[in-house]
TrEMBL record:
Gene3D superfamilies: Nucleoside Triphosphate Pyrophosphohydrolase (3.90.79.10). Belongs to the Nudix hydrolase family. NudK subfamily. This is GDP-mannose pyrophosphatase. GO terms for biological process: nucleoside phosphate metabolic process; ribose phosphate metabolic process. Residues 56-183 form the Nudix hydrolase domain. One of its GO terms (molecular function) is hydrolase activity. The keyword Zinc-finger does not apply. One of its GO terms (cellular component) is cytosol.
Length: 204
């Protein structure tokens, strides 16, 4: 039996055979920060179908890492799933706000901490099937404690845990929040030296 080799593992180039084109769009609901859209699109074969999706302003997640290898996390009740979730701090972008400024603001508001060193890690799209949401992920270091400034009606608890424990909780199913799971794997790679932060430019 001849063993197959793969000389080029990159995805095929050229997207034209896959793209869908919007031919009509309607706003079904416009909420405080989420908008529900219902579009009609033309498929690559020329046929038409419907698409429903949520327009989201985008968000930033911070991984606050202390010098001793511990990280700052949050416990927060998430109404749609009806559970208290274990998460890294995160928050949505305000209008005309850059990702780094959002991270600085949200970290201080939610936890009281500020960071002197920020390294951009990556951008993720957590729900590509029905939302425009993206989350920019930062590693925040050289942390200084302060006082949290939670929004009206916002309730959460912060706690400090060894970085390795976060991965254990992912493996055990105690952490199911997708952004935190991705952040935990990034954190492992950065701490081990396999991946270097700051290799991508910070989105504007």
């Amino acid at each position: 039996m001849t063993e197959k080799t793969h000389d080029n593992l990159a995805p095929p180039s050229g997207d034209e055979g896959l793209k869908e084109v919007c031919v009509a769009s309607a706003t079904v609901h416009r909420g405080k920060f989420l908008t529900l859209k219902q579009d009609i699109v033309r498929l690559p074969d020329g046929k038409q179908t419907g698409r429903e999706y949520v327009v989201h302003p985008g968000a930033v997640m911070m991984i606050p890492l202390f010098d001793d290898g511990t990280v700052l996390m949050e416990r927060q009740f998430r109404y749609p799933v009806g559970e208290v979730m274990l998460e890294f701090p995160a928050g949505k972008l305000d209008p005309e706000e850059g990702a780094l400024r959002c991270g600085e603001r949200e970290l201080e508001e939610e936890t009281g901490y500020s960071a002197a060193r920020w390294d951009y890690l990556t951008r993720i799209h957590p729900v590509i099937s029905y939302s425009t949401e993206f989350i920019d992920v930062f590693l925040a270091r050289d942390l200084s404690a302060g006082h949290a400034k939670l929004d009206e009606g916002e309730f959460l608890e912060t706690f400090i845990v060894p970085a390795g424990q976060v991965l254990d909780w992912v493996r055990q199913g105690r952490i199911t929040d997708v952004k935190t799971i991705i952040g935990a794997f990034w954190l492992e790679k950065v701490i081990s030296g396999v991946w270097q932060p700051g290799e991508q430019p910070v989105p504007r």
